[in-house]
Specification:
The complex is a heterodimer of chains A (242) and B (287).
Chain A (H helix, E strand, L loop, with lengths): L4 H27 L14 H12 L16 H4 L3 H9 L23 H12 L29 E5 L2 E3 L4 E10 L6 E6 L5 E7 L10 E9 L4 E5 L4 E6 L3
Antiparallel strand pairs in A: 1-8, 2-7, 3-6, 3-8, 4-5, 4-7
Helix pairs in contact in A: 2-5, 4-5
Chain B lengths: L1 H16 L7 E2 L7 E2 L13 E2 L8 E7 L8 E9 L18 E7 L5 E4 L2 E2 L4 E7 L4 E9 L7 E9 L21 E2 L4 E7 L8 E9 L4 E2 L7 E6 L5 E4 L9 E7 L5 E10 L2 E10 L5
The chains are: A alpha+beta (242), B mainly beta (287).
């Protein structure tokens, strides 16, 4: 079928633009400001990756009517993106207050290295929103940990070292009196010489004081030394029953 | 105004005729790498995957045998990977950079560095024989990719007692910033940073320049492996090059988390010999 001149011109124009569009698209995309000075240089988006991290790690507190301001949508997060990046990199948020990989805990809500890298790269790249079709359908709110049944007693560790007088099962550790900003490591030196990492508190913030529940209660025999380094305050060791 | 209208009309016309690729394929290791079609990551070589990954964190149990190892004596190190929802032992892993498990070991003073590869036993445990040179705390960065999951970068801690128990340091490692050329067994490496003094939270471009370049080859599937640790061992980061092609320059991009000192271990291979060079950098606050 013969093509009209107008159709032919449109088709040719389409071919030219089809060849140029990838480059043009990049230029246009780069020039779209998130605010007056920010440009998109990342493929990581809120709708695809970041919303999932926030839903898993942040919105149990940061939701409408929750104890902290709402961060459940892009509209609410975007103005805070730069501040969020710094809070996350400084490990102030989420306020877990302990270093990962030094003891294992059932209520741990610290970000993984992968999640920290995702958030910081997203913000550095202009914090784009992305394809709305990729937003997760459901909100995931973390479950609160509870004391194992039978937990009744506590041992107090007020600086330095506590030598256990009998066999105990330690279910959790709770900071009591610690100076603001204190960092300390808690270790257990067993009688056979083995040393277990229990908890590494980092820049303690009293307003976010919480109890750290071990993944499973840890059994220590009499003679085990529980040591706080440096000895800067007091902690409670919560004991599990038999 | 007329030119604006014209440009808008042209863009509108183009957009209506050409579909923008959706870039659905993602590198599971580096989510910045996207493609419209299946293929491999141009940075790390991993197979691109389609869909939105949910990066759940796996469980990882560490066991030392003997339980109270002596410094500089062999100790068996075991790792058990557990599925995050069921707690079941994971026994199948993707091969990443030629190995199913990359292990980095750092001493508290940052004067000891190890990049090794535990092997997977029939019982589903990764196993490695180590020698910790002195008493103290060691941080173990474990890099693995469970089949059906997402790449994991998890840190664990080993505490090695001395003859009188354990004495933990309360001070950060002593690092002295300097970018002078470093020598490995058969190559020299220079490092240039942009900005010259990295800023916490902002991207730093790191340009490693190696010489001689003949015989430069990939080490474990990558032109280089980089590990960065803060002087207090809180931040431990494993990275691969942003740009590298076998030429003399290898570029990494990194966001240093905090305004502290960091030690970098960069590994390159030439003529079958691995060169590990160390640089210390000081990261500043944004002024």
């Amino acid at each position: 079928m013969a093509m009209s001149i107008a159709q032919d011109l449109r088709k040719r124009a389409g071919h030219v633009w089809a060849r140029r569009l990838p480059l043009l698209g990049l230029v246009v995309l780069s020039a779209l400001p998130m605010n007056a000075h920010e440009f998109i240089t990342t493929n990581i988006t809120w709708n695809r990756e970041i919303s999932r991290v926030f839903h898993r790690r942040c919105i149990s507190c940061h939701h409408s009517g929750g104890p902290a301001f709402d961060l459940s949508s892009y509209r609410q997060v975007r103005p805070w993106a730069e501040a969020i990046k710094h809070e996350v990199l400084e490990r102030r948020m989420p306020p877990w207050g302990a270093i990962k990989g030094f003891g294992t805990f059932q209520n741990e809500d610290a970000l993984s290295e992968t999640e920290i890298a995702l958030i910081s790269s997203w913000v550095e790249g202009g914090a784009p929103q992305g394809d709305p079709g990729l937003l997760p359908k459901q909100t995931t709110v973390g479950k609160a940990a509870s004391l194992p049944s039978g937990t009744t007693e506590t041992l107090s560790l007020a600086g330095g070292t506590l030598t256990l007088k009998q066999t105990v099962r330690i279910a959790a550790v709770r900071p009591e009196t610690l100076p603001e900003g204190a960092s300390l490591r808690l270790i257990a030196q067993r009688r056979d010489g083995a040393i277990e990492p229990l908890l590494w508190l980092y820049r303690y913030a009293p307003r976010f004081r919480r109890t750290y529940y071990f993944k499973t209660p840890m059994t220590f025999r009499a003679g085990t030394k529980i040591q706080m380094v440096p000895p800067v305050g007091s902690l409670s060791l919560l004991l599990a029953g038999e | 105004m007329l030119s604006l209208i014209l440009v808008s009309a042209l863009l509108g016309s183009a957009a209506s005729q050409v579909e923008v690729p959706s870039l659905d394929y993602v590198c599971p290791m580096d989510p910045e790498v996207r493609a419209a079609l299946p293929g491999s990551c141009n940075r790390c070589g991993m197979k691109l995957v389609v869909g939105v990954a949910d990066p759940l964190e796996y469980g990882l149990d560490l066991e030392l045998r003997p339980r109270a190892p002596r410094p500089n004596r062999p100790v068996e190190v075991f790792f058990v990977v557990k599925e995050p929802n069921t707690g079941k032992r994971v026994q199948e892993f993707e091969i990443v950079h030629e190995r199913p498990f990359h292990l980095f070991v750092l001493s508290e003073s940052l004067d000891f560095f190890l990049h090794e590869h535990p092997t997977l036993g029939r019982d589903g445990r990764f196993r490695f024989t180590a020698r910790f040179p002195k008493p103290g705390m060691y941080r173990l960065l474990c890099d693995f990719y469970p089949k059906g999951g997402t790449p994991q970068m998890l840190v664990r801690t080993a505490l090695i007692p001395g003859t009188r128990g354990l004495s933990l340091s309360t001070l950060p490692a002593e690092l002295t910033a300097g970018l002078t050329e470093k020598n490995g067994p058969n190559m020299a490496v220079e490092l240039d940073l942009q900005p010259r003094v990295p800023i916490a939270g902002a991207q730093t471009m790191m340009f490693f320049r190696i010489k001689p370049v003949d015989g430069f080859e990939k080490y474990l599937g990558s032109w280089s492996h980089l590990l960065a640790s803060s002087d207090d061992l809180v931040d431990v980061i494993h990275a691969h090059p942003f740009l590298a092609d076998g030429g003399p320059q290898v570029q990494f991009n990194m966001i240093f988390p905090r305004a502290r000192s960091y030690r970098l271990w960069a590994q390159f291979q030439r003529k079958g010999v691995v060169n590990t060079v160390v640089f210390d950098v000081t990261v500043s606050e944004l002024q």
